[in-house]
Amino acid sequence: MKTVLGIAGAVAALFLTIAMFGTAGWTRPPLAVSQNGYRGTGMDQVESRADAIAVKAENVAPAPADPAEPGGDLAGKTYENVKVLQNLTTNEFNRLMVSMTEWVSPEQGCTYCHNTENMADDSLYQKRVARRMLQMTQHINTEWKQKHVQGAGVTCYTCHRGQPVPANIWFTDPGPNATSGFIPRNNGQNLAKASVGLASLPYDTLTEFLGQKEIDNNLIRVNATTALPEGKGKPIQAAEKTYGLMMHMSQGLGVNCTYCHNTRAISNWSESTPQRVSAWHGIRMVRDLNGNYLEPLLSTFPRNRLGVLGDVPKVNCTTCHNGVNKPLNGAHVIDAYPELARPVVAEAPAGAAAPPALPAPAAPAPAPASPAPAMPSDAPKP
């Protein structure tokens, strides 16, 4: 037996030696490294240059349409049943409609949303959804400008990328045996799911953390704030869910933990980067959009557009970011389409409640001179 093991060990050693000589000239791929925190903390973003180039190429904003000729009647007078953009001039309205077609349905054309025999007809659900999405876009570019999207803004293309249905939407994950009636006691984890990097983390954290109307229904934390438990919660399971959400955000933005956190003290806001404040607001923006714009469209979407459990398609971090820390590489897409940054001027369509005024968390990003961000006033205390 010892002889057999000795021979096997010698063969393994031989192959390892050959592999060592055969790979002696290999070098690691060229890396792109950017410092994201204080020097000496190791808060760097590291990726291969090839991947960085490929991802950047996938996130190029389309060229804007030529400006509309000034003057003319308002679209609300020229066309029937214009409920959101009636205060644009007819030329501005037509320019935006052409751009929306290129952003959302370049292959299907106008007929994806419109009955071309009667353009005022609302029978197609796509038109009713598009109207609400216009309101949502205006809401993002006004209410969330200072808190998250800044001067870059968003357009329909930010999410759609030339597809009627954005590639990065999500539904509540039913888990295994969703149709059998059997509910496993697995804490929603221990399955290889891409949403958490094929880890054993809970795979449906988006429903809990990004599908809520009310801000902070579920605290996103890893460490408790007291030495002993104060309730019936399960802090370890809660921490695993938080890590699942962080994994999603890391993949969605193409960054690692140190983009927002100093890993020496993950929860410490004073040692975090300004990006953590932006991410804090981004989570609440996504909740706002899902709770006040998408979930109320449940009766508008046909059954084939709903998830396995009958829920509507929703947005997450990846929907806009698509693997880069700034959507479309930070292009200021709203500059050429200021009408998408105007306040909503029309009532919501039937079946969709008008969004309530969202209380703004007092969390201005720190001045550029100071890299340490100010902790949002209503954020969990570290």
TrEMBL record:
Chain residues that bind heme 2: 133, 156, 159-160
Compositionally skewed regions (Pro residues) per UniProt: 356-374
GO cellular component: plasma membrane light-harvesting complex
CDD domains in UniProt: CytoC_RC
GO BP field: photosynthesis, light reaction
Example GO molecular function: electron transfer activity
Annotated spans, Disordered: 351-382
Modification note: Binds 4 heme groups per subunit.
Alphabetical UniProt keywords: Electron transport, Heme, Iron, Metal-binding, Photosynthesis, Reaction center, Transport
Function: The reaction center of purple bacteria contains a tightly bound cytochrome molecule which re-reduces the photo oxidized primary electron donor.
The protein's name in its UniProt record: Photosynthetic reaction center cytochrome c subunit
Organism: Methylobacterium planeticum
Taxonomic path: Bacteria, Pseudomonadati, Pseudomonadota, Alphaproteobacteria, Hyphomicrobiales
